[in-house]
Amino acid sequence: MKHKILILTLVLILSGQAFAQQNFDLTLSDAQAYALEHNRTLKNASLEIQKAEAAQWKALASMLPQANVKLDYSNFMGYELKFGGMAIPMNPSGNLTGQVAVALSGAQLVGSQLASMAKDMAEVSLKKTEQDITNQVKSVYFSILIMEQTVGLLEKNLKNIQKLHEYTEQSVKVGVADQTDADQLLVQVSTMETTINSTRRSIEMLYNSLRLQLGLDVNTGVTLTQTIDDLLNLENSLQLLKADFVLENNFDYRLLKKSTELSEKQIALNAWSYGPTISAFYQYTKKTYFGKDEGFNTTPPNLIGASLSIPIFSSGVNYAKVKEAKIAYETQCNTLADTEDALKIQHSQLQYNLTSAYESYQNQKKNIEVNQRILNNISKKYEQGMASSLDITTSNSNLLNAQSSYVQALMEVVSAQIALEKLLNINVSK
Questions:
Q1: How many beta carbons lie within 10 A of that of residue 181, not counting itself?
Q2: Residue 178 gets which letter from DSSP?
Q3: Residues 6+ positions from 87 with CB-CB distance below 8 Å
Q4: pTM of the model
Q5: Contact in structure between 129 and 213 (CB atoms under 8 Å)
Q6: Where is 307: in which H helix or E strand?
Q7: C-alpha to C-alpha distances, 341 to 264, 335, 352, 417, nearest whole angstrom
Q8: What phi and psi, each to the nearest 5 degrees, are found at residue 276?
Q9: How far apart are CA 90 and CA 74, in angstroms?
Q10: Which is it for the CA torsion 291, 293, 294, 296, positive or negative?
Q11: Residues with Cβ < 8 Å from 16, sequence gap 6 or more?
Q12: pLDDT digits over 106-138, tens only?
């Protein structure tokens, strides 16, 4: 028995380790698809649709007949009713009452329309959330790749500086170089190593952000199987500049437009406070006596009724509600008009941002190539004794600045592309 328990414990431990060591190899499209299935924010957006469907059914059900059944029991403890010299026994009795009733008003009809519109808004909100999640995954995916590329550039620089430092140390030993030159290069090596380690920690934070978007455990391994070169299609990105901006394709605009329609319906809902309410019911009652005699029964077995309620005077409350709703609708229309203009301006601004980011990227790409060649030339001259360690330090700093500017320009291209894609509701990624 002890051996079985030990074996079972080992199996559970190994299973837990296997689960903890689970690794996901993801392309960008794989990561986006997984996020759409497992992201918790997206799950909540889906639940909002179910909640809106329940509210819609609730509004419809209020216009349908409502039925209920009631059972009751009465015992007068032997009491007799004296009536005209007669004693009428009040025997124990029980009632079975069934009632069907329905009440209809214009407010209920408008309420069901409001519930239907709320469901439509929830569906648009879900699509917007899906767009936000896929864009966030894309942004983090690109950021990781760019930061990893940055580490590659820094490591390449580090190897060059380490090589020069080793050469300088050897030169110091044979008396053809000063220790100060070696120390300056050593500082460069330490600074580069610190920068690389800091960048790697930033990359791990980005991986954690990606795990959060995917709904993965923090210990789950994630490997990105695509590179910047695979994903960064600048020709496709620039095609966004030629795409027409259709307001109806923008989810923010569609949500605001639906909200404006809801505000308009609120006017009708409040206006129906002037309208009548019609109600009708049918009731069946079966009374049973538990004594020897039937007793005095005044309950009819069948009962039908109807009513018409018409509001006459509300001291201006209904008028105030309608006026308030009209003002809210007018305000919402103004907001919608402002948003239309703002989105058109935003479209122009995002086109400008993408164009500028692309031009800056091309410029920084050339700049990094030039500074790399300069450093290579200075390094060769340094080895030949034709340049100083200060020249090396300056050239290396210029290269680092160029690399930093290149990475920043690359991030700006990606950010500008994603922002314009979101506005246009277009995806140009491979």
A1: 21
A2: -
A3: 80, 81
A4: 0.80
A5: no
A6: strand 302-309
A7: 21, 10, 17, 21
A8: -80, 165
A9: 10
A10: negative
A11: none
A12: 888 888 888 999 999 999 999 999 999 999 999
Closest CA to 154 of 190, 200, 196: 196
CA proximity to 212, closest of 415, 38, 37:
38
CA gap 58, 115 in Å, rounded:
9
Map out the domains of the chain with their CATH numbers.
Answer: 32-66+105-274+315-424 (1.20.1600.10)
Amino acid at 414: V
Tell me the residue type at 352. Answer: Y
Query: Residue 200 and residue 192: Cα distance in Å, rounded?
Result: 12
Residue 56 C-alpha from the chain's centroid: 24
Q: 3-state DSSP: the chain helix, strand, coil percent, rounded to 5? A: 70, 15, 15
**d(C-alpha 171, C-alpha 176), whole Å:** 5
Tell me the two tokens of residue 64. 């349908």
3-state secondary structure of 102: strand
pLDDT, tens digit, 9 for 90 and up, residues 63-92: 889 999 999 988 877 777 777 677 777 778
Q: What are phi and psi of 336, to 5 degrees?
A: -65, -45
Decide if pLDDT at 331 tops 90.
yes
Give the three-state DSSP class for 425. coil
DSSP label at residue 176: S
Q: Where are the beta strands (DSSP E) in 256-301?
A: 277-289
